[in-house]
Amino acid sequence: MKIDCKPNEVARRIIQAFPREYNERDPFRVLVNTILSQRTRDENTDEASRRLFSKYKGPASIANARAEDLYELVRPAGMYRQKAERIVSVARELLKRYQGKVPSEIHKLLELPGVGRKTANIVLNVSFGIPALAVDTHVHRISNRLGWVKTKMPEDTERELTNLLEEELWGPINGSMVEFGRKLCKPRKPLCDNCPVKQCCDSYLASKNSY
DNA sequence: AAAACGGGGGC
DNA sequence: GCCCCAGTTTT
């Protein structure tokens, strides 16, 4: 039987094969966890998050902390000083401007320190259920491999995927692409043999035909 | 447009 | 030992 290779169908297959469930929806914790995850592997992110929230319970607690103390706490999990400073800064800014509550408007999120397009969109999606594409390295790499986009700029990928994928897929595709990217569609030496969508992948088909 | 942040894991 | 990682900020 033939596989439907329309992007929406391929995306649905990936989401089904690599589900990502979020056990944390609290906006502030999602925001902090997402900042912790920037350029950092999931295992380190999880450990840093446990360490952080075992000592500091919320925005006010972190806002009153010394950045240096927070840094020493999360450093064993591969976090750097700049990131600890960012988390203290964003907590203070939230307290000052929004009574410690994370806003749900994209433009307000983007004004916060340490929050860029990926982080803002993940918070919108995970915490507020607002459809938002978070184009990280996994989404960017895999979209290019599949042949959905042909660009080096993540902003271009975000714009093209917005047109390519149904709105209901914008949220779930990010988390599932991350799982997919970690388990199979790795940056180097992807495990194509076990891939559920290899028959729809430009990169796989090209490598297969090159023998 | 490119550098800097940064410890830990894969190879 | 070298390179990369759920990016963002600064130069």
From TrEMBL:
<dbReference type="InterPro" id="IPR004035">
    <property type="entry name" value="Endouclease-III_FeS-bd_BS"/>
</dbReference>
<keyword id="KW-0408">Iron</keyword>
<feature type="binding site">
    <location>
        <position position="195"/>
    </location>
    <ligand>
        <name>[4Fe-4S] cluster</name>
    </ligand>
</feature>
<dbReference type="InterPro" id="IPR011257">
    <property type="entry name" value="DNA_glycosylase"/>
</dbReference>
<dbReference type="InterPro" id="IPR003265">
    <property type="entry name" value="HhH-GPD_domain"/>
</dbReference>
<keyword id="KW-0378">Hydrolase</keyword>
<dbReference type="GO" id="GO:0003677">
    <property type="term" value="F:DNA binding"/>
</dbReference>
<keyword id="KW-0540">Nuclease</keyword>
<dbReference type="InterPro" id="IPR023170">
    <property type="entry name" value="HhH_base_excis_C"/>
</dbReference>
<keyword id="KW-0004">4Fe-4S</keyword>
<keyword id="KW-0234">DNA repair</keyword>
<dbReference type="GO" id="GO:0140078">
    <property type="term" value="F:class I DNA-(apurinic or apyrimidinic site) endonuclease activity"/>
</dbReference>
<dbReference type="InterPro" id="IPR005759">
    <property type="entry name" value="Nth"/>
</dbReference>
<dbReference type="GO" id="GO:0046872">
    <property type="term" value="F:metal ion binding"/>
</dbReference>
<dbReference type="GO" id="GO:0019104">
    <property type="term" value="F:DNA N-glycosylase activity"/>
</dbReference>
<feature type="binding site">
    <location>
        <position position="192"/>
    </location>
    <ligand>
        <name>[4Fe-4S] cluster</name>
    </ligand>
</feature>
<dbReference type="GO" id="GO:0006285">
    <property type="term" value="P:base-excision repair, AP site formation"/>
</dbReference>
<feature type="binding site">
    <location>
        <position position="185"/>
    </location>
    <ligand>
        <name>[4Fe-4S] cluster</name>
    </ligand>
</feature>
<keyword id="KW-0326">Glycosidase</keyword>
<comment type="function">
    <text>DNA repair enzyme that has both DNA N-glycosylase activity and AP-lyase activity. The DNA N-glycosylase activity releases various damaged pyrimidines from DNA by cleaving the N-glycosidic bond, leaving an AP (apurinic/apyrimidinic) site. The AP-lyase activity cleaves the phosphodiester bond 3' to the AP site by a beta-elimination, leaving a 3'-terminal unsaturated sugar and a product with a terminal 5'-phosphate.</text>
</comment>
<keyword id="KW-0456">Lyase</keyword>
<comment type="similarity">
    <text>Belongs to the Nth/MutY family.</text>
</comment>
<dbReference type="InterPro" id="IPR003651">
    <property type="entry name" value="Endonuclease3_FeS-loop_motif"/>
</dbReference>
<feature type="domain" description="HhH-GPD">
    <location>
        <begin position="36"/>
        <end position="183"/>
    </location>
</feature>
<keyword id="KW-0227">DNA damage</keyword>
<feature type="binding site">
    <location>
        <position position="201"/>
    </location>
    <ligand>
        <name>[4Fe-4S] cluster</name>
    </ligand>
</feature>
<keyword id="KW-0238">DNA-binding</keyword>
<keyword id="KW-0479">Metal-binding</keyword>
<dbReference type="Pfam" id="PF00730">
    <property type="entry name" value="HhH-GPD"/>
</dbReference>
<protein>
    <recommendedName>
        <fullName>Endonuclease III</fullName>
        <ecNumber>4.2.99.18</ecNumber>
    </recommendedName>
</protein>
<dbReference type="InterPro" id="IPR004036">
    <property type="entry name" value="Endonuclease-III-like_CS2"/>
</dbReference>
<keyword id="KW-0411">Iron-sulfur</keyword>
<dbReference type="GO" id="GO:0051539">
    <property type="term" value="F:4 iron, 4 sulfur cluster binding"/>
</dbReference>
<keyword id="KW-0255">Endonuclease</keyword>
